[in-house]
Amino acid sequence: MTTSDELNIITRIRDEVMSRKELTGENLFLAWGYPTAIVLLLEFAALMLWDENLTEWLWVGIPLVGTPLMLYFLNKDYKRTHRRTLDQNIILMIWMFIGFTSCIGGFAMGLSGVFEQCFFALLGLLCGMGCFITGIILNYRPKTICGVMASELSVTPLFLQGEQWPWQMFVTSIIVVIALIIPGHLFRSYVKNFQK
Predict the structure, then answer these.
(1) Contact status, residue 36 vs residue 174, Cβ threshold 8 Å
(2) Are 29 and 187 in contact (CB under 8 A)?
(3) Given CB 3.0 to 4.6 Å as the disulfide criterion, which of 42, 51, 80, 144 pairs with 135?
(4) Please, which residues have CB within 8 angstroms of residue 155's CB and are 6 or more apart in sequence?
(5) d(Cα 39, Cα 24) in Å, to the nearest integer?
(6) Is 28 within 8 Å of 67 (Cβ atoms)?
């Protein structure tokens, strides 16, 4: 075996590993981003129009829509690749932790009476950090940049207190767009171009 044959084998194996790493999960950010942003905007609109939080029950819709979509896309990706890489498992665990932390944190903040002051800053920070870490693991710069932008913007809800409280939801919906929807669409395009 010549040196050029060995280099060709190494190149082919590297390309195969990279394709397995980068060709999955392109829809997961969108599966959670759109329901979250829509619920935040609906709740913001209800508070601004009727001065009443009539849409609290819509929060249940986020996991009711996001979980089946996530499971569908994970199953679809698994059928395509027939395995999950360590990177994919790590990213999945990070986002499961973020979802769990958001739920427990929101519940605890509601019981302690600081929900309106702190929750949306926490949610924005967790989304931004998750996007940033995912971008680093995938070596995909747009996710990393969007994660930094969303994390920096996450302090804004802390300054919107009292009568300005509904604007926290509007700002958080922008954070979700930056942290989940924009990088989700960019990564989806990247994966489609990579597959060609």
Answers:
(1) no
(2) yes
(3) 144
(4) 121
(5) 27
(6) no
Nearest Cα to Cα of residue 169 among 179, 182, 156: 156
- Residue with tokens 């709740």, as numbered in its chain: 43
Residue 184: in which H helix or E strand, if any?
helix 182-195
Angle at 46 between CA 150 and CA 33, to 5 degrees: 30
Give the pTM: 0.77
Per-residue confidence of the chain (196 residues) as pLDDT tens digits? 566 666 676 666 656 555 544 445 667 788 888 888 888 888 888 888 876 666 567 777 777 887 788 778 777 766 766 666 677 778 778 888 888 888 787 778 777 777 777 788 888 898 899 889 988 888 888 889 999 999 999 999 889 888 888 888 899 999 999 998 999 888 888 777 765 5
Instruction: Say which residues have a Cβ less than 8 Å from residue 22's Cβ, sequence separation at least 6.
Output: 138, 140, 190, 191, 194
Sign of CA dihedral 117, 122, 127, 128: positive
Query: Using an 8 Å Cβ cutoff, are 182 and 140 in contact?
Result: no
Query: Are 179 and 131 spatial neighbours (Cβ–Cβ below 8 Å)?
Result: yes
Query: What span, in angstroms and rounded, lies between the C-alpha atoms of 151 and 135?
Result: 13
Q: Which residues of 113-143 are buried (b: 16+ CB within 10 A; e: fewer)?
A: eebbbbbbbbbbbbbbbbbbbbbebbebebb
Residue among 148, 126, 134 at smallest CA distance from 184:
134
Q: Which structure tokens are listed for 73?
A: 């896309």
